[in-house]
Amino acid sequence: MTRPDHVLTVLRRNPDLARLAAGSFDFDLDRAEHGEEVRLASGAPLRAVAGDDTGGTYFVCADGAVLYASSEGEAGLIGAGTDEALEILVGLPGWRDYTDLDPAADDEALEAVFDRVEGEIRDSYGSELDTERSTLLSGLGLRRLPRRELLHRLQESLLRTEPEFLLLNAEEGCAYALPDRLRRPPLWEAVLAPGRDDLARMRADRDGWEAIAGDPVRRATVLRAAQYDRRPGDLRLLRVLLRQEARCGPTEELRLAAVLVALHGKPEDHTLLRSLRESDADVHFLLGGFPDAAGALTQWGADFDESNYGQDPHDEHDLTWTALARRQGRTELARAALIRILDGAGPRDEALLGSLVHELEALGDLGQAIRARRLHASLQDDAGKRGAALVDLASLQRRHGEVEAAWQSLQRAVTVLDGPPPPPPADQLELDLDLDLDLPQPSCQTPTWRELGLGMRVTEEHFLITQAAVPPGLHEVAQASLRSGRAMLDGHAHVPEPLRQAAEAAQALAAPRPA
């Protein structure tokens, strides 16, 4: 195969070959500019190298893979490198008509489709397609491969698009759609695969139990694998997993392990689970409704299983698998799935959006977490909930380096939380006409949000924004945020030491420097 980018260099140096590529094969070096700013979700570099007559663009990724993005919001890999991509584009002109073809179809059916599409190209360009194909492939040092093989390579590349090469609109953060309808394995299958392997190892050899059960991530994954592949002989290994998980406190995996053990209905396991439950108040709550009698253990486990677990991984929400993928260190797998979920969220998904914020933040993708929190805040009808969401939005924006946007969000939060001033009662208006009337003052008032925990958080965020605004030279933002923060601080009867320190740090950083 040719060196990376060799074919592009040859095309740039040979106008005749470049003209052939731009004509019947629609790979035009002069169209290397996409209609909107785009980026890969992974943050990896991307370079536009050519375009087509529909407004689509060909990009070369960091590893040399070629990604095609249409002007209609679809994107997919078309080759592992520029050489393979050009072999496909030249060998299968009109390749976008082939993305959903069945490569296992008989030769006659495939050739009929290929011939029809190429006939349309000949009619449109009036070209000697076969002659031009041979000239271009020869000039670029590429192979002429059977069209069935090229179709197979094209579809293999398309299937590799996600998660590593998910393309986003750079401004909005939304993902491009896939350009095909090829079948892809569900998320759970990829996440569960290492757990299935570990479960098979544990069943085959006890020597590996300690290493697998002692690793929190492997343990969590193998428990999920055991949930969907239940066997009578697994009780001993389930007990080992249960005891190891109990050391981590009241986790979801502990409850799953307890349910899987309970389903076997052994009296000694009733004793074990009861002792775990009684040893920790949080575990006691986690394993709620635990039966007093050992004979009821199986039913308790079955009830929990039916309401929380089950035996079909398709029934589990994708957030379970994204969280596990994140714990496994498979960041891009989790990120791509979370972005797809976020793109599909709507006005009825308030709870889902809140969960997405936390998952994306845990993944370290603050940009997508901001997008989720902004939509989540917009769905809040309650002023308190909307204000709290805006405060969190401000925090995310500040940490993402969007200091001015963070200051605007925090100001909106305070406005929403304060609300409009309540009108005075009608009788109060009449009494106020007598300026000499000494009205009794209420002995107590309901604390406002400023006096509660949220008020402390908002006050602190003012000082954090002040500190973030100084390095990039946003001095007006820094001073305005500092003034507002100090005013709020003065309204607190009791100031925690961390908040006082944050105020002092902000004051010191934002103080004018002597000339």
Give the biggest beta sheet: 4 strands, antiparallel
Placed side by side, the strands forming the largest sheet appear as 2-3-4-5
User: Residue ranges: pLDDT <50 for 5 or more in a row?
Assistant: none
- How many alpha or pi helices? 24
Give the end-to-end Cα distance, rounded to a whole number of Å: 64 Å
Classify the secondary structure makeup into a structural class: mainly alpha
Radius of gyration: 31 Å
Q: Bin the strand percentage.
A: 5-15%
One letter per element, helices H and strands E, the order comes to: HHEEEEEHHHHEHHHHHHHHHHHHHHHHHH
Helical percent range?
55-70%
Principal-axes geometry comes out as: flat
Detail the topology: elements first, then pairings.
Layout: H1 6-13, H2 15-22, E1 38-40, E2 46-51, E3 57-61, E4 66-69, E5 75-79, H3 82-91, H4 107-125, H5 129-140, H6 147-159, E6 167-169, H7 187-204, H8 209-213, H9 216-228, H10 235-246, H11 252-262, H12 267-278, H13 281-286, H14 297-308, H15 318-327, H16 331-343, H17 350-363, H18 366-378, H19 383-399, H20 403-418, H21 426-432, H22 453-469, H23 475-490, H24 497-510
Antiparallel strand pairs: 1-6, 2-3, 3-4, 4-5
Q: Could you walk me through the main structural features you see in this protein, from its secondary elements to its overall organization?
A:
This protein has 515 residues and is mostly helical. It has helices at residues 6-13, 15-22, 82-91, 107-125, 129-140, 147-159, 187-204, 209-213, 216-228, 235-246, 252-262, 267-278, 281-286, 297-308, 318-327, 331-343, 350-363, 366-378, 383-399, 403-418, 426-432, 453-469, 475-490, 497-510; strands at 38-40, 46-51, 57-61, 66-69, 75-79, 167-169. The strands form 2 sheets. Strands 2-3-4-5 form a 4-stranded antiparallel sheet. It has a two-stranded antiparallel ribbon with strand order 1-6. Helix 18 (366-378) runs antiparallel to helix 19, helix 19 (383-399) packs antiparallel against helix 20 and helix 23 packs antiparallel against helix 24 (497-510). The protein is flat and about 85 Å long.
